Amino acid sequence: MPDAEVVPAGQGTPAREGTPPETALPVTEAVAEVLTRLGADTVFGVVGSGNFKVTNALIARGARYVAARHEGGAAVMADAWARLTGRPGLVSVHQGPGLTNAMTGITEAAKSRTPLVVLAADVASAAVRSNFRIDVPALAKAVGATAFRPRSAGFAVDETLRAYRVAATERRTVVLALPLDVQAGACTMPSIGPLAPRPAAAASAAAVGSLADALAGSKRPVFIAGRGARVAGARADLERLADRCGALLATSAAAKGLFRGSPWDLDVSGGFASPLAAELIREADLVVGWGCSLNMWTLRHGNLIGPEATVAQVDDDPSALGGHVPVALGVTGDVALTARAVADALGEASSGEVPSGEVPSGEVPSGEVPSGEVPGGKAPSGKTASGRPGYRSAALRDRIAAQVRWRDVPFEDESTGDRIDPRTLSIGLDDLLPAERIVAVDSGNFMGYPSMYLSVPDADGFCFTQAYQSIGLGLASAIGSAIARPDRLTVAALGDGGALMGISELETVVRLGLPMVIVVYDDDAYGAEVHHFGPDGDPLDTVRFPPVKIARIGRGFGCQSVTVRRRRDLRAVKEWLDGPRDAPLLVHAKVTSEHGSWWLEEAFRGH
Ligand SMILES: Cc1ncc(C[n+]2csc(CCOP(=O)(O)OP(=O)(O)O)c2C)c(N)n1
Ligand SMILES: [Mg+2]
After folding, report:
1. Model's pTM, two decimal places?
2. pLDDT computed for residue 375 by the predictor
3. What is the pLDDT of residues 319-329, one digit of tens each?
4. Which atom of ligand 1 is nearest to the CA of 543?
5. pLDDT one-digit tens code per residue, 330-357
6. What is the pLDDT of residue 23?
7. Cα of 527 to ligand 1 centre, how many Å?
8. How far does residue 446's CA lie from ligand 1's centre (Å)?
9. CB neighbours of 307 closer than 8 A, spacing ≥ 6?
């Protein structure tokens, strides 16, 4: 996050046409100067004539340029990079088709509130007959992005500043259109100070008190933290509050890993929730969403909310409150600040305090925990209620430790010898891959297997570009992740359909020398559609394919590769991990596909 205000020089006014010529810069240089001074140091893109100059100007100022092979890949790489660095991503594209090719990635970013700046060349305003002409602002708006377009050279600096500021401080995806005639002009450069963060908004005292009251009165509170909690860095504050009121901790898929290591971590709520996690969330009497939209995925269409449960939601965006499920208590405020204030309202540690990980001794079965020492289960805000066991007990902690992970849930291995059960595959990979990893997942029937069976070390260990539910983004999101976090091993988990859709970026992985593991869960089909429509007896010819030699394709691109049909074939993964890792490893897994996955049925209910 940037940490101070952007202050154009002089009287605080941005550069204008007609300012002293001695400081004039070509617009392409000025735009690059503004962006790099604001901290942009990595740019993803595909270069054409329209963005050639500005991209080179960025490189000349020290930015790393990552050439993608498709603009959709470039946008997704920048999106993933932004998610893992916490800084605005930057993409550079040619006018017209360069931008339209990037639109799916831009849509994903916009729906995920990723701070992203798309530098898009555009035709001159007067070029009304240009074949490249499209309505850029309308296009951006249609997918939830915001467009900026300097109308003359004198506005180039202002528009760049505005675009970057909106992306960074409002977590928005912006398209900065650079008309060719404007690019050809010159402007002056003001001095630019660092960017001021948007002040975090604290919840009102009344709202804090209401939430504290609700938590004090709850016997089985569950927190579900989402992307907003993740970007606010709210883990410590949420855990402290949860310790005070005895809450269990879960996340949306977008924040998977946030509470990793806590004995009260239920992992992901929603379609990916393990049976124990789902049971405990369903039995909650109070569910609090923290920076979490509480959408149909996270709550299984509301089925994870028990009939008697109260729902509360905390978000810094008031329009998010109650957007997906009715909430009894909506609190507008920064997640971390609000959690801190509520914890304070619940009182400081007292003799009754139960610190994190510690619980009262004695066997207290789930669902029958005592309500704590507050008479009637209610404590007015400001009164001490710290150390209430709430939902926590020694017995429950042991159950969570033994059963909450999917890999500890017994299943019948359906591997055939010719094809491997995707659960067996995923558990085998989980055993082999280093803990310090990032798992980037594409969309499809297969997607739950890596999401549920591959553990991640923290929230930065999971890159989930699924807000738009597009297939084909997984490989590019893995590339952006690997560039953002070279200290970790990135694992791309793809279906055969998504892998082949995004395959052009395999060249990017190889060219950049990224030591990545790419796992393709291959069922020779668009399995999601097969399993959705198959039971109705519909013809499935449109969604089934003959076998594709994906391992061989990988080798053609320069990957090391292995085809996995049995668990023992995973030895090749161990060998690669123990070796120099000088080429990416493509694991082509021929997986069983007898039936659809349980989360998929859930997903199709939303169609
Ligand atoms: C861009 C795009 N096109 C089509 C779809 C519809 N769709 C959803 S899942 C899926 C199948 C994906 O196949 P694959 O990657 O092999 O995964 P599988 O479902 O077989 O596990 C398709 C076509 C989509 N979500 N996104
Ligand atoms: Mg498939």
Report:
1. 0.91
2. 29
3. 999 999 999 99
4. 23
5. 999 999 999 999 999 998 533 344 445 4
6. 67
7. 7
8. 10
9. none
pLDDT of residue 591: 98
Q: Report the separation in Å between the CA atom of 528 and the middle of ligand 1, taken as the mean of its atom positions.
A: 6
Pocket test for ligand 1, best of 449, 471, 590, 602 (most atoms within 8 A of CB): 471
| Ligand 1 surroundings by CB, under 6 angstroms | 443-446, 469-472, 495-498, 521, 523, 525-529
Residue nearest to atom 16 of ligand 1 (CA): 497
Nearest ligand 1 atom, CA 527: 20
Indicate the domain borders of the chain. 23-189, 205-352+383-403, 409-605
Low-confidence ranges of the chain (pLDDT < 50): 1-22, 349-355, 357, 359-386
- 506: CB partners within 8 A, 6+ apart: 475, 518, 553, 554, 557, 559, 586
Same fold, 205-352+383-403 and 409-605: yes
Task: Please say whether the beta carbons of 484 and 431 come within 8 A.
Answer: no
Which of 519, 522, 526, 604 best tests ligand 1's pocket when mutated (most atoms within 8 Å of CB)?
526
Angle among Cα 75, 523, 438 to the nearest 5 degrees reads 40
* Nearest ligand, measured from the Cα of 450: 1
Select the CATH number that applies to the domain covering 409-605 from these four: 2.60.40.10, 3.40.50.970, 3.60.140.10, 3.40.50.150. Answer: 3.40.50.970
Q: Could you write out the DSSP letters of every residue in 199-212?
A: PPPPPPHHHHHHHH
In CATH terms, the fold of domain 205-352+383-403 is Rossmann fold (3.40.50)
Q: Specify the CATH architecture of the domain 23-189.
A: 3-Layer(aba) Sandwich (3.40)
Sequence letter at residue 243: D
